[in-house]
Model the fold of this input.
Amino acid sequence: MSFAPGTPPAAAATDDHALAAWLATVAGERLLEVRQEGLEGRELKDAGDRAAHELLMGLLAEHRPGDAVLSEEGKDDKARLTSSRVWIVDPLDGTREFSEVPRDDWAVHVALWADGDLVAGAVAQPALGETFHTGAPPVVPPSTAPRPRIAVSRSRPPAFVHALGEELDAELVAMGSAGVKVISVARDITDAYVHAGGQYEWDSAAPVAVARAAGLFTSRIDGTPLVYNQEDVYLPDLIVCRPELAERIVAFVREHGYE
Done:
């Protein structure tokens, strides 16, 4: 899926799934261009965050001018709390991995919240040339692994996940972006992503929308629902997994905690 930034597919005029997919895709293509500009380290991270944020904000203002936007890289306009439609975006999820060329475990997140819940979302993995979205949700194949695989952070996996891995006889698979971890479940690279180390709404909104559309289980780590467009956008924990693992994971967390 590839488009020129100024020309969305015709369906995007009325179809929020199509618009989300296009927005994530073109922002990802812009990030690939930034990666070729010769920058390194912090300069590359900052340039990527800025370029993708500015592109997404401009395109949303053009194509959905009446909607509110919550972006990791923008000021939080609390007017969103009285809006019936709010785009929740992370212009570059996994800045560390983005700056470590040629790593591919970074993403662009674009989600739409409307009237109380997530209704559309897209996660682009530009270095793979893939955009996963709610308009054509991923088809989750049966697990090909002999034992469960749990996606964990490269740098700060929660300590309790090691105990959970032992309980499930699971393999822990380290990777970057939160979106990449969630989508890894849909792609049969892992079977679950369990996190309790601190996140915000933009870290999980788009991936959770796609995961739900694909039929995966999603919740807070204690099994309660994930709720978006809150005044406090801190949403520190989540579970995304194959439905058959959900009961065991939630039961373990409730019994043992997650410190």
Summary: The mean pLDDT is 94. Strands lie at 68-71, 85-93, 107-114, 117-125, 130-133, 149-153, 171-175, 192-195, 217-219, 238-241.
